[in-house]
Write a structure and sequence with these properties.
The chain is α+β, with helices and mostly antiparallel strands. The protein has a single domain, classed as L,D-transpeptidase catalytic domain-like (Beta Barrel), CATH 2.40.440.10. Helices cover 30% and strands 21% of the residues. It is built from six helices and nine strands. The strands form two sheets. Strands 5-4-3-9-6-7-8 form a seven-stranded mixed beta sheet, sandwiched between helices. A hairpin with a 2-residue loop joins β1 and β2. α1 packs across α2. The longest helix has 26 residues. The N and C termini lie far apart (45 Å). This is Murein L,D-transpeptidase catalytic domain family protein. It holds the Pfam family YkuD_2. Keywords: Signal.
Amino acid sequence: MALLRFGLPLAALLLTAMSVPSAYADSLAAALVKAAPGADAKVINLAVRASQCSIAQGAAPVQRLAIIDYSLPSTEQRLWVFDLKKRKLLFHELVAHGRNSGENMAVNFSNQNESFATSLGLYRTQSSYVGQNGYSLRMEGLEPGFNDNAFDRAIVIHGAPYVNPMLARVNGRIGRSLGCPAVRPAIAHRLIDSMKDGQLLFSYYPDQRWLKTSSYINCGSGTVASASKSTIRK
């Protein structure tokens, strides 16, 4: 006999409880796709899923979500920064990958120290600071085995003169970093200020091992469903 609560089968109650929050996540993803028509809808959906999973698992809520699609060449604007509360696009920019990840296309990814390669997965931003690359933003990699060495590797967001569309036209690619998602100096300060202090960055590439094992993009519908609209920080 089915378990009952308030006269409804337990399975029905669970389905009802899941439907509203997951509908919110679907609605959010659809709004971000609309705000960034040039982005891959599949990547945006994965990023939203990952962000909702992190919140459902007890992480602090976020207002900003940055997405980097490293399946695109460095000569294309492959970084998007979204305001999740307003569901609007704040930045659409060029972004560098690590020198050992590839030339124009990033194809190799690493979590190892001194690899000078980009790492995949979900990151949470920390505080901004001024270092050897000027105004920069520390990040914590949240995915064991994929990016959890990011802080020790000093993988940060910073401005770099080699992130330049003129270089892309001359060399067939923008310059490369030591693994950091470097951006144009002209927008670095504003972008960092929009992303500092506990926001999320989702670094994507169709790497099958990561896609199959990431705890954030494979956390289960029940976990995703428990993250609701009320988790967006004002």
